[in-house]
Structure to design on (374 residues):
């Protein structure tokens, strides 16, 4: 086998690292992160008539952008896009199980919240109680609520 | 180099590496996949608890300090943006080190590995500062000084998940820095030069990028949502 040097020798072929591509990936990641920050800070600074709806939409955008970043890191930095299709599939297909996990568990969490609010009114009332007001603009001798010392 | 692929591409009939990667690299991929499931389990637990809570602290109100700046920053999340930048940057230098390894350029591998290690240490220092600061504000496992976004009393879930998951991630960064330092020393001593290839750098690189990848998700789940 040592003398069979076919089209895809393991360590030497398909490894012409494109430095330009790396920096392009870096810029994409940087821009996406900056865009996310602009959205997060914008949401924080502005007021909306329906903040919950806006927040949900924003979270959807964050998920998409995060997945985009994950794609670029795995595909380019970890070089997976340039591997053989079979290898890509053994990595990507199990990872897709996450979609199911995430969907099922978050649904479960939401359902638990609704059931509890419906049948445990005490919990609902307790969760509406305002926290004791602590002055927010403190200096650096911050108090430690709940700390024993 | 006995793993070769012939042009007819009969991947599975033996005598060749069907995935066309060396064993160690393949196993690193599978390890990272299992590690991804661990982190995924953490983050899904966090998400489930958060979905089952009536309210949750506002990250913009919690993460708004910066070292050396008195009081709060005019914009929130500035410090964590810096941390993200540092980690992505160190990922770039890691790719460049891998690329230099393919070119068998020992000097450049050393330079880029050095930058990667510095980036990792810088990230860990930032995290240490943030943890210390939050601890000073009274946040720790089991105690949460931040009220919910709607003004109601919060539970300790927020801080428990925050410290557990960023701590677990930080531990991965720490291990990555140690691995990178070992790689640096091995490169420096010419181990890979004698071996004729820098595949170990590539495997360490995979791990390092994975740490960056996890941070992307931690960043979204804790600081943006």
């Amino acid at each position: 086998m040592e003398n069979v040097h076919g089209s895809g020798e393991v360590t030497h072929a398909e490894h012409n690292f494109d430095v330009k591509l790396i920096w392009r990936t870096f810029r994409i990641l940087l821009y996406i992160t900056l865009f996310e920050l602009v959205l997060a800070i914008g949401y924080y600074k502005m007021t909306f008539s329906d903040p919950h709806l806006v927040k949900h939409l924003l979270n959807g955008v964050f998920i998409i952008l995060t997945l985009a970043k994950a794609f670029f890191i795995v595909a380019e930095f970890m070089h997976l896009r340039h591997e053989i299709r079979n290898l890509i599939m053994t990595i990507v297909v199990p990872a897709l199980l996450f979609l199911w996990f995430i969907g099922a568990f978050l649904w479960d969490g939401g359902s638990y919240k609704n059931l509890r609010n419906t049948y445990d009114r005490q919990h609902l009332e307790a969760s509406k109680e305002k926290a004791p007001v602590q002055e927010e603009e403190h200096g650096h001798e911050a108090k430690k609520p709940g700390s024993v010392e | 180099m006995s793993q070769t692929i012939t042009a007819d591409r009969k991947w599975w009939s033996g005598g060749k590496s069907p995935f066309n990667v060396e064993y160690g690299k393949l196993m690193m991929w599978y390890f990272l996949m299992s590690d991804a499931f661990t982190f995924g389990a953490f983050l899904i637990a966090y998400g489930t608890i958060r979905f089952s809570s009536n309210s949750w602290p506002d990250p913009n109100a919690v993460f708004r300090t910066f070292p050396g700046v008195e009081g709060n920053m005019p914009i929130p999340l500035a410090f964590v943006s810096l941390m993200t930048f540092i980690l992505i940057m160190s990922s770039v230098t890691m790719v460049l080190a891998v690329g230099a390894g393919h070119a068998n350029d020992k000097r450049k591998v050393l330079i880029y590995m050095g930058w990667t290690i510095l980036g990792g240490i810088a990230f860990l220092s930032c995290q240490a500062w943030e943890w210390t600061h939050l601890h000073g504000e009274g946040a720790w496992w089991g105690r949460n000084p931040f009220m919910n976004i709607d003004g109601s009393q919060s539970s300790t879930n927020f801080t428990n998940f925050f410290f557990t998951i960023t701590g677990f991630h930080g531990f991965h960064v720490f291990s990555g820095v140690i691995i990178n330092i070992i790689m640096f020393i091995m490169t420096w001593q010419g181990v890979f030069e004698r071996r004729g290839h820098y595949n170990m750098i590539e495997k360490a690189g995979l791990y390092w990028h994975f740490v960056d990848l996890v941070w992307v998700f931690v960043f979204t789940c804790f600081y943006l949502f």
